[in-house]
Design brief:
Helix content is 36%, strand content 17%. It is of the alpha/beta class.
Length: 153
């Protein structure tokens, strides 16, 4: 029996494809990533990122995880963060799906929305999202999930 949302991540069923491969040949299985809590394989990445940050002592209890996102990763990160007792601040834009923005909020994330130019995703918008995320992550107790030197949303 699962005891938390975290226990459900990656605990997805394998289903054999019996009609794709002729009998007597290789066994082919698919993994139903849609069975993850948010319905996305990105739940695995969110949990792995948070777990690594905790192990490296870069993320402390009660800290805020900052992420620049267009939706799916932010949704997964919000669910993982809240389940593990962290705050989640997601920087996004009105150029992205309103349903995803609502979903992130419903999962407990604080969502900061940058205005786009007529809902267009431009280089300037992405640059602003990244820079805003970096600035917010400089506050004490804030951790920027993206650790590469050239993050992308």
């Amino acid at each position: 029996m699962q005891t938390s949302l975290i226990d459900l991540i990656g605990n997805t069923p394998l289903v054999p494809l019996r009609r794709v491969v002729p009998q007597g040949h290789a066994r082919v299985l698919i993994e139903l990533e849609s069975a993850n809590p948010t319905g996305s394989m990105k739940d695995r990445a969110a949990l792995a990122n948070v777990s690594l940050a905790v192990q490296a002592a870069r993320l402390q209890p009660g800290d805020t995880i900052v992420e620049c996102t267009s939706g799916s990763t932010g949704t997964s990160l919000a669910s993982v963060a809240v389940a593990l007792g962290y705050k989640c601040l997601l920087v996004t834009s009105d150029a992205f799906s309103t349903e995803k923005l609502s979903h992130m909020r419903a999962l407990g994330a604080d969502v900061q929305i940058l205005r786009s130019d007529n809902k267009k995703i431009t280089v300037e918008l992405v640059t602003a999202l990244i820079e805003t995320s970096r600035q917010l992550s400089q506050q004490p107790g804030h951790f920027l999930r993206i650790s590469s030197t050239t993050p992308t949303c």
